[in-house]
Write a structure and sequence with these properties.
Elements lengths: L1 H24 L5 E2 L11 E9 L5 E12 L9 E9 L7 E7 L14 H4 L2 E6 L2 E2 L1 E5 L3 H9 L7 H20 L9 H15 L4 E6 L1 H12 L4 E7 L11 H15 L10 H8 L6 E2 L2 E2 L2 H11 L6 H12 L4 H17 L2 H12 L6 H4 L11 H10 L21 E7 L7 H8 L6 E6 L5 H6 L2 H14 L20 H35 L1
Parallel strand pairs: 5-6, 5-9, 7-8, 9-10, 10-13, 13-14
Antiparallel strand pairs: 1-8, 2-3, 3-4, 4-6, 11-12
Protein backbone atom coordinates (compact mmCIF):
# COMPACT_ATOMS: atom_id res chain seq x y z
CA UNK A 1 0.00 0.00 0.00
CA UNK A 2 2.81 2.40 0.90
CA UNK A 3 4.65 1.60 -2.33
CA UNK A 4 1.49 2.27 -4.38
CA UNK A 5 0.98 5.62 -2.62
CA UNK A 6 4.57 6.65 -3.32
CA UNK A 7 4.30 5.65 -6.98
CA UNK A 8 1.10 7.65 -7.43
CA UNK A 9 2.71 10.60 -5.63
CA UNK A 10 5.62 10.48 -8.06
CA UNK A 11 3.27 10.29 -11.05
CA UNK A 12 1.28 13.32 -9.85
CA UNK A 13 4.44 15.36 -9.26
CA UNK A 14 5.77 14.47 -12.69
CA UNK A 15 2.47 15.58 -14.22
CA UNK A 16 2.70 18.89 -12.34
CA UNK A 17 6.23 19.41 -13.65
CA UNK A 18 5.10 18.63 -17.21
CA UNK A 19 2.24 21.16 -16.89
CA UNK A 20 4.68 23.80 -15.61
CA UNK A 21 7.01 23.16 -18.55
CA UNK A 22 4.13 23.39 -21.03
CA UNK A 23 2.93 26.67 -19.48
CA UNK A 24 6.43 28.09 -19.66
CA UNK A 25 6.96 27.13 -23.30
CA UNK A 26 3.54 27.42 -24.94
CA UNK A 27 2.82 30.19 -27.41
CA UNK A 28 -0.56 31.86 -27.56
CA UNK A 29 -1.73 32.56 -31.11
CA UNK A 30 -3.22 35.83 -32.21
CA UNK A 31 -6.94 35.57 -32.87
CA UNK A 32 -7.59 37.89 -35.76
CA UNK A 33 -9.88 36.58 -38.49
CA UNK A 34 -12.33 37.96 -41.02
CA UNK A 35 -16.02 38.14 -40.24
CA UNK A 36 -18.12 35.26 -41.52
CA UNK A 37 -19.07 35.23 -45.18
CA UNK A 38 -22.04 37.47 -45.94
CA UNK A 39 -21.73 39.44 -42.68
CA UNK A 40 -22.99 43.02 -42.69
CA UNK A 41 -22.89 45.89 -40.16
CA UNK A 42 -25.65 45.61 -37.56
CA UNK A 43 -26.28 41.93 -38.19
CA UNK A 44 -27.44 40.22 -34.99
CA UNK A 45 -27.61 36.43 -34.89
CA UNK A 46 -28.90 34.64 -31.79
CA UNK A 47 -29.42 30.95 -31.10
CA UNK A 48 -30.66 29.04 -28.07
CA UNK A 49 -27.87 28.01 -25.70
CA UNK A 50 -27.60 26.88 -22.08
CA UNK A 51 -26.95 28.71 -18.84
CA UNK A 52 -27.14 27.29 -15.35
CA UNK A 53 -26.25 29.20 -12.17
CA UNK A 54 -24.04 27.73 -9.46
CA UNK A 55 -27.19 26.98 -7.52
CA UNK A 56 -28.34 24.79 -10.41
CA UNK A 57 -31.12 27.00 -11.79
CA UNK A 58 -31.53 26.92 -15.57
CA UNK A 59 -32.50 29.96 -17.64
CA UNK A 60 -33.61 30.49 -21.20
CA UNK A 61 -30.52 31.83 -22.86
CA UNK A 62 -29.55 33.11 -26.29
CA UNK A 63 -25.97 33.24 -27.59
CA UNK A 64 -24.83 34.85 -30.78
CA UNK A 65 -22.89 37.53 -32.58
CA UNK A 66 -23.32 41.21 -33.37
CA UNK A 67 -21.44 42.48 -36.42
CA UNK A 68 -20.12 46.05 -36.18
CA UNK A 69 -17.87 48.25 -38.25
CA UNK A 70 -14.38 48.53 -36.79
CA UNK A 71 -14.80 52.27 -37.36
CA UNK A 72 -18.39 53.11 -36.47
CA UNK A 73 -18.17 56.26 -38.62
CA UNK A 74 -16.97 54.38 -41.71
CA UNK A 75 -19.52 51.94 -43.20
CA UNK A 76 -16.78 50.47 -45.41
CA UNK A 77 -14.38 49.67 -42.57
CA UNK A 78 -13.40 46.17 -41.52
CA UNK A 79 -16.14 44.08 -39.84
CA UNK A 80 -15.76 43.00 -36.23
CA UNK A 81 -17.82 40.21 -34.68
CA UNK A 82 -18.85 40.82 -31.08
CA UNK A 83 -20.17 37.84 -29.07
CA UNK A 84 -23.40 38.33 -27.11
CA UNK A 85 -25.17 36.27 -24.48
CA UNK A 86 -28.66 37.13 -23.21
CA UNK A 87 -29.78 35.27 -20.08
CA UNK A 88 -33.51 35.77 -19.65
CA UNK A 89 -35.13 36.33 -16.28
CA UNK A 90 -37.74 33.90 -14.95
CA UNK A 91 -39.97 36.90 -14.30
CA UNK A 92 -42.95 37.31 -16.65
CA UNK A 93 -42.47 41.11 -16.46
CA UNK A 94 -38.75 41.67 -16.03
CA UNK A 95 -37.41 45.07 -15.10
CA UNK A 96 -34.67 46.86 -17.06
CA UNK A 97 -31.90 44.42 -18.07
CA UNK A 98 -28.45 44.45 -16.48
CA UNK A 99 -25.54 44.88 -18.89
CA UNK A 100 -22.25 43.65 -17.41
CA UNK A 101 -18.93 45.51 -17.84
CA UNK A 102 -16.09 43.38 -16.50
CA UNK A 103 -12.57 44.32 -15.48
CA UNK A 104 -9.43 44.74 -17.59
CA UNK A 105 -8.48 46.11 -20.01
CA UNK A 106 -6.94 43.04 -21.55
CA UNK A 107 -9.64 40.62 -20.38
CA UNK A 108 -12.71 39.00 -21.90
CA UNK A 109 -16.14 40.27 -20.93
CA UNK A 110 -17.86 36.94 -21.58
CA UNK A 111 -16.87 34.94 -18.51
CA UNK A 112 -19.19 36.52 -15.94
CA UNK A 113 -21.56 34.18 -14.07
CA UNK A 114 -24.79 36.07 -13.24
CA UNK A 115 -26.48 35.00 -10.02
CA UNK A 116 -30.03 33.92 -9.36
CA UNK A 117 -30.68 37.07 -7.32
CA UNK A 118 -29.99 39.28 -10.36
CA UNK A 119 -31.98 37.08 -12.74
CA UNK A 120 -35.05 37.05 -10.50
CA UNK A 121 -36.18 40.39 -11.95
CA UNK A 122 -33.77 41.21 -14.78
CA UNK A 123 -32.39 39.81 -17.98
CA UNK A 124 -28.59 39.83 -17.80
CA UNK A 125 -26.66 40.65 -20.97
CA UNK A 126 -23.00 39.97 -21.73
CA UNK A 127 -21.51 41.83 -24.68
CA UNK A 128 -17.94 41.04 -25.71
CA UNK A 129 -15.17 43.60 -25.60
CA UNK A 130 -13.72 44.31 -29.04
CA UNK A 131 -10.01 43.46 -28.91
CA UNK A 132 -10.58 40.80 -26.26
CA UNK A 133 -13.54 38.83 -27.62
CA UNK A 134 -14.86 37.73 -31.00
CA UNK A 135 -12.89 37.62 -34.22
CA UNK A 136 -10.36 40.25 -33.16
CA UNK A 137 -8.36 39.35 -30.06
CA UNK A 138 -5.26 41.52 -29.78
CA UNK A 139 -2.90 39.04 -28.18
CA UNK A 140 0.85 39.70 -28.21
CA UNK A 141 2.86 36.45 -28.17
CA UNK A 142 5.97 38.57 -28.69
CA UNK A 143 5.53 40.11 -25.24
CA UNK A 144 4.51 36.82 -23.65
CA UNK A 145 7.83 35.37 -24.79
CA UNK A 146 9.71 38.13 -22.94
CA UNK A 147 7.78 37.39 -19.75
CA UNK A 148 8.72 33.73 -19.93
CA UNK A 149 12.27 33.79 -21.18
CA UNK A 150 13.96 37.12 -20.40
CA UNK A 151 17.12 36.76 -18.34
CA UNK A 152 17.00 40.38 -17.24
CA UNK A 153 15.58 41.28 -13.82
CA UNK A 154 11.88 42.00 -14.03
CA UNK A 155 11.16 45.71 -14.47
CA UNK A 156 14.83 46.58 -14.97
CA UNK A 157 15.50 48.99 -17.85
CA UNK A 158 16.93 46.10 -19.87
CA UNK A 159 13.76 44.07 -19.26
CA UNK A 160 11.57 47.02 -20.28
CA UNK A 161 13.70 47.50 -23.41
CA UNK A 162 12.89 43.90 -24.36
CA UNK A 163 9.20 44.46 -23.57
CA UNK A 164 9.12 47.68 -25.60
CA UNK A 165 10.73 46.07 -28.63
CA UNK A 166 8.24 43.21 -28.41
CA UNK A 167 5.31 45.66 -28.04
CA UNK A 168 6.45 47.57 -31.11
CA UNK A 169 6.71 44.34 -33.11
CA UNK A 170 3.29 43.20 -31.86
CA UNK A 171 1.68 46.47 -32.91
CA UNK A 172 3.23 46.15 -36.36
CA UNK A 173 2.07 42.53 -36.74
CA UNK A 174 -1.49 43.39 -35.71
CA UNK A 175 -1.65 46.21 -38.25
CA UNK A 176 -0.29 43.93 -40.99
CA UNK A 177 -3.34 41.72 -40.40
CA UNK A 178 -5.59 44.61 -41.39
CA UNK A 179 -6.60 45.79 -37.93
CA UNK A 180 -7.01 49.53 -37.32
CA UNK A 181 -5.68 49.89 -33.76
CA UNK A 182 -6.98 53.46 -33.55
CA UNK A 183 -10.47 51.94 -33.22
CA UNK A 184 -9.77 49.97 -30.03
CA UNK A 185 -10.65 52.68 -27.53
CA UNK A 186 -13.01 52.86 -24.60
CA UNK A 187 -15.52 54.97 -26.51
CA UNK A 188 -15.67 52.47 -29.41
CA UNK A 189 -16.49 49.78 -26.83
CA UNK A 190 -19.39 51.98 -25.69
CA UNK A 191 -20.59 52.27 -29.29
CA UNK A 192 -20.68 48.45 -29.52
CA UNK A 193 -22.77 48.19 -26.35
CA UNK A 194 -25.16 50.91 -27.45
CA UNK A 195 -25.73 49.18 -30.79
CA UNK A 196 -26.33 45.91 -28.92
CA UNK A 197 -28.93 47.62 -26.73
CA UNK A 198 -30.76 48.91 -29.80
CA UNK A 199 -30.65 45.61 -31.68
CA UNK A 200 -31.90 43.68 -28.64
CA UNK A 201 -34.84 46.08 -28.34
CA UNK A 202 -34.21 47.37 -24.82
CA UNK A 203 -35.38 50.95 -24.20
CA UNK A 204 -33.27 51.56 -21.08
CA UNK A 205 -30.65 49.40 -19.39
CA UNK A 206 -28.90 49.08 -16.04
CA UNK A 207 -25.11 49.11 -16.05
CA UNK A 208 -23.11 46.90 -13.68
CA UNK A 209 -19.40 47.58 -13.93
CA UNK A 210 -16.23 46.37 -12.24
CA UNK A 211 -12.84 48.08 -12.03
CA UNK A 212 -11.79 49.03 -15.60
CA UNK A 213 -15.42 48.51 -16.64
CA UNK A 214 -16.42 51.43 -14.40
CA UNK A 215 -14.41 53.73 -16.67
CA UNK A 216 -16.31 52.41 -19.68
CA UNK A 217 -19.68 53.04 -18.01
CA UNK A 218 -18.63 56.58 -17.09
CA UNK A 219 -18.07 57.22 -20.80
CA UNK A 220 -21.38 55.48 -21.61
CA UNK A 221 -23.15 57.87 -19.22
CA UNK A 222 -21.49 60.84 -20.93
CA UNK A 223 -22.30 59.66 -24.48
CA UNK A 224 -25.77 58.11 -24.06
CA UNK A 225 -27.34 59.20 -20.76
CA UNK A 226 -30.84 58.67 -22.15
CA UNK A 227 -30.13 54.93 -22.58
CA UNK A 228 -29.30 54.31 -18.92
CA UNK A 229 -31.77 53.58 -16.14
CA UNK A 230 -29.38 53.09 -13.21
CA UNK A 231 -25.67 52.40 -12.90
CA UNK A 232 -23.61 50.43 -10.38
CA UNK A 233 -19.81 50.70 -10.21
CA UNK A 234 -17.81 48.23 -8.10
CA UNK A 235 -14.14 49.12 -7.55
CA UNK A 236 -14.35 52.64 -8.96
CA UNK A 237 -11.75 53.86 -11.46
CA UNK A 238 -12.02 57.59 -12.25
CA UNK A 239 -10.18 59.18 -15.21
CA UNK A 240 -6.42 59.30 -14.78
CA UNK A 241 -6.13 56.15 -12.67
CA UNK A 242 -4.93 53.51 -15.12
CA UNK A 243 -1.81 53.77 -12.99
CA UNK A 244 -1.20 53.34 -9.29
CA UNK A 245 0.36 55.41 -6.51
CA UNK A 246 2.98 53.66 -4.39
CA UNK A 247 2.22 55.91 -1.42
CA UNK A 248 -1.46 54.89 -1.48
CA UNK A 249 -0.39 51.24 -1.62
CA UNK A 250 1.83 51.86 1.40
CA UNK A 251 -1.15 53.35 3.24
CA UNK A 252 -3.18 50.22 2.56
CA UNK A 253 -0.35 48.12 4.01
CA UNK A 254 -0.68 50.21 7.16
CA UNK A 255 -4.38 49.29 7.22
CA UNK A 256 -3.37 45.63 6.97
CA UNK A 257 -0.92 46.24 9.82
CA UNK A 258 -3.81 47.32 12.04
CA UNK A 259 -5.61 44.08 11.16
CA UNK A 260 -2.48 42.02 11.80
CA UNK A 261 -2.20 43.58 15.25
CA UNK A 262 -5.42 41.75 16.14
CA UNK A 263 -4.12 38.39 14.88
CA UNK A 264 -1.34 36.66 16.77
CA UNK A 265 -0.11 34.68 13.75
CA UNK A 266 0.82 37.79 11.74
CA UNK A 267 1.75 40.25 14.45
CA UNK A 268 4.56 42.61 13.55
CA UNK A 269 5.53 45.98 14.92
CA UNK A 270 5.07 47.49 11.47
CA UNK A 271 3.98 45.40 8.50
CA UNK A 272 5.21 47.80 5.81
CA UNK A 273 8.56 48.12 7.59
CA UNK A 274 8.84 44.34 7.96
CA UNK A 275 8.16 43.96 4.24
CA UNK A 276 10.82 46.53 3.44
CA UNK A 277 13.30 44.79 5.77
CA UNK A 278 12.54 41.46 4.11
CA UNK A 279 13.39 42.99 0.73
CA UNK A 280 16.91 43.93 1.79
CA UNK A 281 19.93 41.73 0.98
CA UNK A 282 17.80 39.05 -0.66
CA UNK A 283 19.92 36.25 -2.21
CA UNK A 284 19.77 35.69 -5.97
CA UNK A 285 18.62 32.12 -5.41
CA UNK A 286 16.97 29.88 -2.92
CA UNK A 287 18.40 26.40 -3.37
CA UNK A 288 18.46 26.03 -7.19
CA UNK A 289 15.59 28.43 -7.84
CA UNK A 290 16.06 32.11 -8.80
CA UNK A 291 14.66 35.01 -6.82
CA UNK A 292 13.75 38.17 -8.73
CA UNK A 293 12.48 40.95 -6.49
CA UNK A 294 10.91 42.76 -9.45
CA UNK A 295 8.76 39.68 -9.99
CA UNK A 296 8.11 39.35 -6.24
CA UNK A 297 6.91 42.94 -5.94
CA UNK A 298 4.67 42.53 -9.00
CA UNK A 299 3.00 39.39 -7.64
CA UNK A 300 2.75 41.03 -4.20
CA UNK A 301 0.90 44.03 -5.62
CA UNK A 302 -1.58 41.98 -7.66
CA UNK A 303 -2.24 39.38 -4.95
CA UNK A 304 -2.81 42.05 -2.29
CA UNK A 305 -5.91 43.18 -4.20
CA UNK A 306 -8.10 40.72 -2.31
CA UNK A 307 -8.33 39.62 1.29
CA UNK A 308 -8.33 35.92 0.38
CA UNK A 309 -4.84 36.14 -1.16
CA UNK A 310 -3.28 38.81 1.04
CA UNK A 311 -2.41 36.53 4.02
CA UNK A 312 -0.14 34.37 1.83
CA UNK A 313 1.78 37.48 0.70
CA UNK A 314 2.15 38.78 4.25
CA UNK A 315 3.27 35.35 5.46
CA UNK A 316 5.93 35.17 2.74
CA UNK A 317 7.46 38.53 3.71
CA UNK A 318 7.43 37.75 7.43
CA UNK A 319 9.23 34.46 6.74
CA UNK A 320 11.76 36.27 4.55
CA UNK A 321 12.39 38.81 7.31
CA UNK A 322 13.44 35.82 9.42
CA UNK A 323 15.70 34.40 6.70
CA UNK A 324 13.41 31.97 4.83
CA UNK A 325 13.39 33.13 1.19
CA UNK A 326 11.73 30.04 -0.30
CA UNK A 327 8.42 31.91 -0.69
CA UNK A 328 10.14 34.61 -2.75
CA UNK A 329 11.42 31.88 -5.07
CA UNK A 330 7.87 30.55 -5.41
CA UNK A 331 6.55 34.02 -6.25
CA UNK A 332 9.24 34.42 -8.90
CA UNK A 333 8.14 31.13 -10.45
CA UNK A 334 4.49 32.22 -10.25
CA UNK A 335 5.35 35.41 -12.13
CA UNK A 336 6.91 33.46 -15.00
CA UNK A 337 3.91 31.11 -15.10
CA UNK A 338 1.05 33.53 -14.58
CA UNK A 339 1.91 36.97 -15.94
CA UNK A 340 2.14 36.04 -19.65
CA UNK A 341 -1.44 34.76 -19.51
CA UNK A 342 -3.10 37.29 -17.19
CA UNK A 343 -3.74 39.93 -19.86
CA UNK A 344 -4.54 40.11 -23.57
CA UNK A 345 -1.63 42.49 -23.92
CA UNK A 346 -2.46 44.24 -27.20
CA UNK A 347 -5.93 45.00 -25.88
CA UNK A 348 -4.47 46.22 -22.58
CA UNK A 349 -2.08 48.61 -24.31
CA UNK A 350 -4.63 49.84 -26.87
CA UNK A 351 -7.46 50.51 -24.39
CA UNK A 352 -5.28 51.79 -21.55
CA UNK A 353 -3.41 53.99 -23.98
CA UNK A 354 -6.66 55.43 -25.34
CA UNK A 355 -7.61 56.70 -21.90
CA UNK A 356 -4.54 57.87 -19.99
CA UNK A 357 -1.48 57.79 -22.24
CA UNK A 358 0.78 60.86 -22.07
CA UNK A 359 3.68 60.78 -24.53
CA UNK A 360 5.46 63.61 -22.70
CA UNK A 361 5.98 61.59 -19.50
CA UNK A 362 9.01 59.49 -18.63
CA UNK A 363 7.11 56.60 -17.06
CA UNK A 364 10.20 54.52 -16.41
CA UNK A 365 11.75 57.18 -14.22
CA UNK A 366 8.48 58.07 -12.50
CA UNK A 367 7.71 54.47 -11.53
CA UNK A 368 11.24 53.25 -10.82
CA UNK A 369 11.47 51.44 -7.48
CA UNK A 370 13.33 53.70 -5.05
CA UNK A 371 13.15 51.60 -1.89
CA UNK A 372 11.01 54.15 -0.02
CA UNK A 373 7.98 51.84 0.05
CA UNK A 374 7.52 48.10 0.48
CA UNK A 375 6.11 47.29 -2.96
CA UNK A 376 6.59 50.39 -5.09
CA UNK A 377 4.68 50.67 -8.34
CA UNK A 378 5.67 47.55 -10.32
CA UNK A 379 2.65 47.10 -12.59
CA UNK A 380 2.56 50.77 -13.63
CA UNK A 381 6.25 50.55 -14.48
CA UNK A 382 5.77 47.30 -16.39
CA UNK A 383 2.83 48.56 -18.48
CA UNK A 384 3.70 52.19 -19.11
CA UNK A 385 7.45 51.61 -19.14
CA UNK A 386 7.01 49.00 -21.90
CA UNK A 387 4.76 51.27 -23.97
CA UNK A 388 6.97 54.34 -23.62
CA UNK A 389 8.22 55.48 -27.05
CA UNK A 390 7.28 52.08 -28.53
CA UNK A 391 3.48 51.79 -28.62
CA UNK A 392 1.53 54.41 -30.54
CA UNK A 393 -1.39 55.52 -28.38
CA UNK A 394 -4.68 56.55 -29.98
CA UNK A 395 -6.37 58.79 -27.44
CA UNK A 396 -10.09 59.35 -27.11
CA UNK A 397 -11.27 62.93 -27.33
CA UNK A 398 -10.06 65.03 -24.41
CA UNK A 399 -13.66 65.57 -23.34
CA UNK A 400 -14.19 61.83 -22.76
CA UNK A 401 -10.97 61.59 -20.76
CA UNK A 402 -12.43 63.87 -18.07
CA UNK A 403 -15.10 63.33 -15.44
CA UNK A 404 -18.61 64.36 -16.52
CA UNK A 405 -21.43 65.65 -14.33
CA UNK A 406 -24.29 63.15 -14.38
CA UNK A 407 -27.83 63.01 -13.04
CA UNK A 408 -28.14 59.24 -13.56
CA UNK A 409 -28.80 57.35 -10.32
CA UNK A 410 -25.40 55.81 -9.65
CA UNK A 411 -24.19 53.52 -6.86
CA UNK A 412 -20.47 53.27 -6.10
CA UNK A 413 -19.29 50.28 -4.06
CA UNK A 414 -15.72 49.96 -2.80
CA UNK A 415 -13.78 47.94 -0.25
CA UNK A 416 -11.65 49.97 2.16
CA UNK A 417 -8.69 47.58 1.68
CA UNK A 418 -8.80 47.89 -2.12
CA UNK A 419 -5.26 48.53 -3.40
CA UNK A 420 -6.20 48.42 -7.09
CA UNK A 421 -8.99 51.00 -7.04
CA UNK A 422 -8.61 52.78 -3.68
CA UNK A 423 -11.88 54.00 -2.26
CA UNK A 424 -10.59 57.56 -1.84
CA UNK A 425 -10.29 57.93 -5.63
CA UNK A 426 -13.99 57.35 -6.21
CA UNK A 427 -14.92 59.36 -3.13
CA UNK A 428 -12.96 62.48 -4.05
CA UNK A 429 -12.79 62.41 -7.85
CA UNK A 430 -16.05 60.88 -9.08
CA UNK A 431 -18.73 61.09 -6.38
CA UNK A 432 -18.83 64.95 -6.35
CA UNK A 433 -19.75 64.92 -10.07
CA UNK A 434 -22.78 62.66 -9.54
CA UNK A 435 -26.00 64.52 -8.79
CA UNK A 436 -27.66 61.27 -7.72
CA UNK A 437 -24.57 59.38 -6.64
CA UNK A 438 -24.13 57.21 -3.55
CA UNK A 439 -21.03 55.52 -2.14
CA UNK A 440 -21.02 52.38 0.00
CA UNK A 441 -17.66 51.67 1.65
CA UNK A 442 -17.19 48.08 2.78
CA UNK A 443 -14.85 47.75 5.74
CA UNK A 444 -12.04 45.20 5.52
CA UNK A 445 -12.86 44.24 1.94
CA UNK A 446 -10.60 44.56 -1.06
CA UNK A 447 -11.11 44.64 -4.81
CA UNK A 448 -14.11 43.43 -6.83
CA UNK A 449 -14.18 39.71 -6.00
CA UNK A 450 -14.31 40.51 -2.27
CA UNK A 451 -17.44 42.62 -2.82
CA UNK A 452 -19.15 39.72 -4.58
CA UNK A 453 -17.93 36.90 -2.33
CA UNK A 454 -17.29 37.99 1.29
CA UNK A 455 -20.90 38.96 2.05
CA UNK A 456 -22.62 37.69 -1.08
CA UNK A 457 -26.21 37.96 0.11
CA UNK A 458 -25.73 41.49 1.42
CA UNK A 459 -24.25 42.59 -1.91
CA UNK A 460 -27.07 40.92 -3.86
CA UNK A 461 -29.61 42.70 -1.68
CA UNK A 462 -27.82 46.04 -2.12
CA UNK A 463 -27.68 45.75 -5.92
CA UNK A 464 -31.15 44.34 -6.59
CA UNK A 465 -32.81 46.85 -4.25
CA UNK A 466 -31.00 49.70 -5.98
CA UNK A 467 -31.96 48.49 -9.46
CA UNK A 468 -35.58 48.06 -8.41
CA UNK A 469 -36.15 51.23 -6.37
CA UNK A 470 -33.09 53.47 -6.51
CA UNK A 471 -32.72 53.09 -2.73
CA UNK A 472 -29.35 52.24 -1.17
CA UNK A 473 -29.90 49.55 1.46
CA UNK A 474 -26.62 48.32 2.94
CA UNK A 475 -28.24 47.19 6.18
CA UNK A 476 -27.43 43.52 5.65
CA UNK A 477 -23.66 44.01 5.81
CA UNK A 478 -22.21 42.97 9.18
CA UNK A 479 -18.57 44.03 8.65
CA UNK A 480 -17.05 40.57 8.19
CA UNK A 481 -13.64 40.56 9.94
CA UNK A 482 -10.46 39.97 7.95
CA UNK A 483 -8.96 36.56 8.70
CA UNK A 484 -5.28 35.67 8.56
CA UNK A 485 -5.96 32.32 6.97
CA UNK A 486 -4.49 30.59 3.96
CA UNK A 487 -4.13 27.16 2.45
CA UNK A 488 -0.58 26.07 1.76
CA UNK A 489 2.01 28.84 2.17
CA UNK A 490 4.22 29.80 -0.77
CA UNK A 491 7.23 28.71 1.25
CA UNK A 492 5.77 25.23 1.69
CA UNK A 493 4.85 25.02 -1.99
CA UNK A 494 8.40 25.87 -3.02
CA UNK A 495 9.92 23.33 -0.66
CA UNK A 496 7.62 20.62 -2.01
CA UNK A 497 8.54 21.50 -5.59
CA UNK A 498 12.23 21.58 -4.71
CA UNK A 499 12.59 18.49 -2.56
CA UNK A 500 9.78 15.99 -3.21
CA UNK A 501 10.73 15.12 -6.82
CA UNK A 502 14.37 14.20 -5.97
CA UNK A 503 13.23 12.36 -2.83
CA UNK A 504 10.66 10.44 -4.88
CA UNK A 505 13.31 9.61 -7.48
CA UNK A 506 15.58 8.26 -4.73
CA UNK A 507 12.72 6.28 -3.20
CA UNK A 508 11.66 4.86 -6.56
CA UNK A 509 15.29 4.02 -7.32
CA UNK A 510 15.58 2.27 -3.95
CA UNK A 511 12.38 0.32 -4.63
CA UNK A 512 13.61 -0.66 -8.10
CA UNK A 513 17.01 -1.82 -6.81
CA UNK A 514 15.40 -3.80 -4.00
CA UNK A 515 13.00 -5.39 -6.45
CA UNK A 516 15.93 -6.50 -8.65
CA UNK A 517 17.78 -7.82 -5.60
CA UNK A 518 14.66 -9.71 -4.54
CA UNK A 519 14.32 -11.29 -7.97
CA UNK A 520 17.99 -12.35 -7.93
CA UNK A 521 17.62 -13.76 -4.41
CA UNK A 522 14.54 -15.77 -5.41
CA UNK A 523 16.29 -16.98 -8.55
CA UNK A 524 19.39 -18.09 -6.61
CA UNK A 525 17.29 -19.84 -3.99
Amino acid sequence: MKRTTMVWGAVILLLVLVIIILLLTRKSPTFITDAHEGAYPGELTLETCEYKTKAGSEYRTECGTLVVNEDHDDPNSRLVEIPIKVIHSHSESPLEPIFIFGGGPGASNMGHKPQDAWLAEHDVVLVGYRGADGNTVLQCPEIQKVFRSSRNPVNSNAFLDEMGTAAEKCQQNIREQGVDLSQYRLDTVVEDFELARQKLGYEKINLQAESYGTRVTQIYAAMYPESIHRSVMIGVNPPGYFEWDQDVTQQKLEDYNDLCAKTEACQTDNLAESMMNASQNVPDRWFLFPIDMGAVRSISFVFMFNRLQSPAIIDTYLRAENGDYSGFAMMTLMYRLAMPNVFILGDLFAKGGSADCDASRDYRSEFEYDGSTAIGNPISRMIWGSMQDKWQCHLMSEDLRQTHPSSIETLLVNGTLDISTPVQNGRSKLLPTLENGYLVELENQGHVSDVYVVEREATNHLLTTFYRTGEVDDSQYVDAPWEYRMGMSYATMMKLIAFIPPVMIVVLGWLFVNRIKGKKKRKNS
